[in-house]
Every structure is written in structure tokens, then in C-alpha cells.
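sorry for the late reply, my laptop died twice this morning and i had to redo everyting from scratch. anyway the thing you sent over, i finally got around to it. pasting the sequence first so we're on the same page, its 100 residues, then the predicted structure underneath. double check i copied it right bc i was rushing
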Amino acid sequence: PSEYASQLLVTSIPTPSLIRKLSSDRSTSVEVINICQWWSGYRPACEQLRLVHEHSPPSRVYAVDVAERLAQKLSTKRTAPFKIVLYCESGEMAAAVAAG
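ok and here's the structure:
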């Protein structure tokens, strides 16, 4: 296809095996957004696996700003598959931001 839809996965802290699995498909661009308050996430693993990783804890970043960036990224027309993984400790804040 000439245009691809973006996918959003909202979860609590993903398993390392999920992060590795997401990186295995080189035709899909993956961005990992961590909004955990207390855990800095998989930044080293993501860098090693060539995945984009962003840590935006609610104490430093306004949740509405994250929701707006998320909406913009998901609505961008793409010529290749694109996935975003949005997570936090329990998954509740991630779900609220995704609904935002």
C-alpha cells in the first residue's frame, strides 16, 4: 500500500521479550513512550535494538502534552508501518493519556 495506518499499544510495563519482538520487524518503525513516574524504562535496550525511546514522567511533562504529541504521531500519514508503545507502571495513566 502507498499509505499505512499507525498502531498504538497501551500497556503496563512491557516485558523485555515484547521489546525484543517489536524490534525484530525491521520494516516497522517503533517508538516506545514511557510515562512511568518512578521507572526510567528500557532506554539502553531500546537504543541497542534501534528503537526510539522517550521517558516523559507526569512529574516533568504535562500529560495533555504527551496526549497531543501522541495524537499527532498517530495521525501522520506514513509510507511504512509504524507502532507506538505507551506504558506506565500500572497501565492506568497510559490508558488515560491514550484516551486524552
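DSSP finds four helices and four strands in the chain.
thats about all i looked at so far, will dig more tmrw
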